[in-house]
Amino acid sequence: MAGEKKAKAKAEQAKGKAKETVGRAVGNERLETKGRTKQSKGDARQAKEKAKDVFKH
Description:
By secondary structure, this protein is an all-alpha fold. The chain has helices at residues 2-26, 29-56. 9% of the residues are buried. The model has no long low-confidence stretch (mean pLDDT 91).
């Protein structure tokens, strides 16, 4: 289960990075901002999973 959540966080980060890059390339600030937001969510999710791992061991 934890591996699944970590993978989901990584995927969310990657999707966010892609949106940010596309938004920047086409000059769409809204898409760029959405991408950064999605990346931040992925970062937070990944940090949460790492913290859970620390407390497990």
